[in-house]
Amino acid sequence: MKWGVIVFPGSNCDRDCAHVLTDVLDQDVRLVWHGDTSLNGLDAVILPGGFAYGDYLRAGAVAQLSPIMHAVKEFARTGRLVLGVCNGFQILLEAGLLPGAMLPNVGLSFICEDVWVRVENADTPFTRHYESGQVMRFPIAHAEGNYHTDPVTLAALQANAQIMFRYCRADGTVTEHSNPNGSLDNIAGLRNAGGNVLGLMPHPERCAEALLDNEDGQLLFRSMIDVVTTGSDKKQMTS
Amino acid sequence: MIRATIHVTLKAGILDPQGRAIRQSLETLGFAGVNDVRVGKFLEIELNEEDPAQAEAQLKAMCETLLANTVIEEYRYELKPQPSRHSS
Fold this sequence. Notes:
The structure holds two protein chains of two kinds.
Chain A: E1 2-7, H1 14-24, E2 28-33, E3 44-47, H2 68-77, E4 81-85, H3 87-94, E5 101-103, E6 111-119, E7 135-142, E8 146-148, H4 151-159, E9 163-168, E10 187-191, E11 197-200, H5 218-230, H6 234-238
Parallel strand pairs in A: 1-2, 1-3, 3-4, 4-11
Antiparallel strand pairs in A: 5-8, 6-7, 6-9, 9-10, 10-11
Chain B: E1 2-10, H1 17-28, E2 40-47, H2 52-67, E3 73-81
Antiparallel strand pairs in B: 1-2, 1-3
């Protein structure tokens, strides 16, 4: 399986993603410069974490206008898998590939810590190796992860099972106290209506190998590999 | 030439933690009676354009596509025609 990892000026998790994919999961990875215009030959694309364009104006606002984003939109439109992590999630929101927007964390701090996250929907190309309701320990590191959208869109996200991960307690209970950043409905990750674009604030690539004493994130990449290489899950990939 | 000033602010009803922190700081300093503080962005844009209607159309497009995220923010602008640099 061939992966593309987009490199924006200011990306800083691009190499981490490439490392996990090549050294841990034995995948083919191409780093794609943001000024490039083609994603030909790739099966899945990752928009990594970082501070693309210094987060000037708003996180993701300038990056979403990069030349490669035309190709990313076309890639998503044709049903192929797009994963945005942290700053990549913010870029997907600004690009309109996912609904809603990010506000500054409610406590105004940059938060860098491990959090508990509940898998809300395991019946997707990104989560098939998890179980619904499973609680994972994922690291977060962001200043703008306070997800916001209007009530109509939130209702649609809930009704279509587009909310993929929610901040929770260790026992899986979703509470206000377990919400690190004020995110609406404790949303940590969501997918588009087509089901092939996922954005999440936690960093699965930072918890995907035994050396780091946490492999919870590896299952996300394994799910995507499984879907692409076995060709199953066509329904969700093309809907 | 037209000079435009643009204010981008959070929509009413969207929590502004920064504004709230500033309000509390003002209170700490003894400024009683500050009911609310909202923080936004201020931009000055110089347009090489003489026609106010054209300038306004451009500004609106700029705000909608880049300068504001209309999911969470609203914007307003003012146009100030500048005397041409070439006139005597």
